[in-house]
Amino acid sequence: MRKQRIIGLFDSGVGGLTVMKEILEQLFDVRIVYFGDTARVPYGNRSQEELVRFGEESVTFLIGQGAEVIVVACNTSSATALPILRERFNIPMIGMVDPGARLAVEKTIAGRIGLIATETTVRSKAYSTGVSRALARGSVPENAVLRESWQQGEQAIALVKAQGCPLFVPLIEAGLANSAEARGIAKTYLAPLQAAGVDALILGCTHYPFLEPVLKEILGEDVLIIDPALAVVEELKVLLQEMEGRDAANSERRSRSEISAVNAGKSQWRARYFVSGDPGLFRQVGNTLLHEPIESVEQVCFGDTPFHT
């Protein structure tokens, strides 16, 4: 029987729930340990040094919970800390930037890609580099006209406008994603992207899909919303298949007791939730955003987290 993998997923707060939701809906033989660093949210104005330290603490904790794969479900951490984390930990890690950039390249119609993200992610230029990297690695637009024009050098494909949106995360963490305040702030943030004529908009923060109805209302049908979580799940599927192949190759060396131990967990928990801040607030906001119950949330405190029970 196929091994049920444990995926470790961390984010600055509730935003990573958008990624977790996609994984659970598409992958039925995995379990997820979720860590939200809610005591130190938002990450968007943090230094790289801080983000690397927060990432090390999160990854160490998730590995201790049995994680075999880490999903860095935070664009800010993916843009700034992930390369260093990959050097320091011997565990597969998937970030948000490269999958999101690749999906934008595939879906753009006019080659004019936009980005909304935290200020740290915008300053890193990680998505601009990611778009160029996706093209260099062979990703091409699905639209035949644009693909041909780009291949002939007649049409550029690039990230033409990136907009920092520092107020979005606090609004969402407060459960105000569908408020009039959110709509007003979104109109201000989106105006430069509309002026730049973007046709595909990357949601460069895992919190932002909770604002998708508001964004679509303002942008209209001509701008395609790109949620990197969808591409992350596809990348995760490939990685899990590779891990399964390695397991199959080594199966002759595994004892019956080992195989039984692996299969014994299939009837256990599907998702576990941990936060560094207030568990009750995370459960309240998470239930509102997901429209499904989060029954239990446990608190984990690191050295400098301000909230303690």
Structural class: alpha/beta
Percent of sequence in beta strands = 15-25%
Q: What would the average pLDDT be, to the nearest integer?
A: 91
Number of strands: 10
Q: How many DSSP H or I helices?
A: 14
The end-to-end span amounts to 42 Å
For the biggest β-sheet, the strand order reads 4-3-1-2-9-10
- What is the CATH C level class of the largest domain, in words? Alpha Beta
Put the structure in a nutshell.
Helices cover 48% and strands 16% of the residues.
Write the layout of secondary structure elements.
Elements: E1 5-11, H1 17-26, E2 30-36, H2 48-64, E3 69-72, H3 75-80, H4 82-88, E4 93-94, H5 97-107, E5 112-117, H6 119-124, H7 126-136, H8 144-151, E6 158-164, H9 168-173, H10 180-195, E7 200-204, H11 212-219, E8 224-226, H12 228-249, H13 256-264, E9 271-275, H14 279-290, E10 297-299
Parallel strand pairs: 1-2, 1-3, 2-9, 3-4, 5-6, 5-7, 7-8, 9-10
Helix pairs in contact: 1-12, 2-4, 5-7, 5-12, 10-11
Provide an overview of this structure:
By secondary structure, this protein is of the alpha/beta class. It folds into 2 domains: 5-96 and 230-299, Rossmann fold (3-Layer(aba) Sandwich), CATH 3.40.50; 97-228, Rossmann fold. It is 48% helix and 16% strand. The chain has helices spanning 17-26, 48-64, 75-80, 82-88, 97-107, 119-124, 126-136, 144-151, 168-173, 180-195, 212-219, 228-249, 256-264, 279-290, and strands at residues 5-11, 30-36, 69-72, 93-94, 112-117, 158-164, 200-204, 224-226, 271-275, 297-299. The strands form 2 sheets. The chain has a 6-stranded parallel beta sheet, sandwiched between helices. The radius of gyration is 20 Å and the shape is globular. The model is unreliable at 259-266 (pLDDT under 50).
